[in-house]
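Appendix B. Raw example, untouched.
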Amino acid sequence: MDASSSSHDDAALPSNAEGVLFDLGPVKEAEVAPPGGPPRLRRAQRDQIVMRNLALDALLPEDHRARIVWQYVEGLDLSPLYASIRSVEGDKGRAATDPRILLALWLYATVEGVGSARGLARLCEEHLAYQWLAGEVPMNYHTLADFRTAHPEFLDRLLTQSVAVLMTEDLVDLNRVAQDGMRVRASAGASSFRRRPTLERCLKEAREQVSRLRAEIETDPGQAHTRQHQAQMRAAQERAERVQRALHRLPEMEAKKKLAEKEQARASTTDPDATVMKMADGGFRPAYNVQYATDTKSKVIVGVDVVTSGSDAGQMPPMVEQVQERHERPPKEMLVDGGFAKHEDIEAVSQPEIGTIVYAPVPKSRNPEIDEHAPHRRDTPIVTQWRQRMATPEAQAIYKDRAATAEWSNAQSRNRGLYQFRVRGLAKIKMIALWYALAHNLLRAVALRAGAED
């Protein structure tokens, strides 16, 4: 094509005044590419398959709390737990999960406020610290839940040993111990409480259901091996057992009622050991009364108990006895609030064979003209000494340690999630209370030793 024809074609094309072929409107400033071209970015590629040559141990910081828990567990004698494992080398069956891992997982979970077996199993898949403790050993919530309540004697002995070690290091002396109760919500609804006629009817229905399921097995023996029928049979038997336990508990509940109100006594078909108690917010709910005894010097928990009574009255002598059995010496001084200060209890722990000095507030007299610290006509010499002692400034100053220790240790358990139990039955509830005490003492031991080194 020559130059003349090219010039002719260009002139034939439509154009605007600025010589633009097509008018696209005003160009926005943001759409103008930078002089050097579009920006060059490193974009996320989450579907890319990669191989990382990293050890799990390298991912967790050296000062992480999970390492402290593992170091503590590594120093424990777990031979009682290993002795109960039936899977052995050279025999058939799947290998058992190392109890050391399960113990460390639950201690760390309790420290971090995780109280659900399902939640812990999920964290073992998603959270680095739990993955590190598990060490690539697969976890399921059944194994975790079973382990948590399977070894009461071992955990109880572990609490004693943990305090004994601190006593040998002069970090715990048991000279002054504070006790306080904490009501924790039970895993039972208020609607599960039934009177005697209803409980008897429920028991009859549950037993009839068990008999019907057994008759079905006799008619069709193959049905006994079906998973659905096994689940139905297990549920029916468990319900019959719970209702039976509720009926056995009913006389205890009736004894707390006035004669005209005995028929109103109720027990729970969900958790027969639970008792309706007045909670801290003033409401009434099914709960358990967790009792902790704390050494005021170290703030270490030295005694644990759980009772089904909403009152703290009568709980001091059993705790003093427990501390003496655990650590071979009773507390020299016991700090308790007014709910524990029954005259009979003060008498019991102050006997010469025990010799514990009680610091508890004296109830105020309704008559302002009467001095509550003055001896009363029916007071024994021990009660008189207690009244006179609590009138002194020295005793009142000592008593102030109770709130800073007993209430503090209870608050720490609350901060770790101890608001409602996820298990049922007094035996399992005591296990959970022990887990919280062990987790508390583990952190206190670390803090005390760090202070000793300073």
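End of appendix B.
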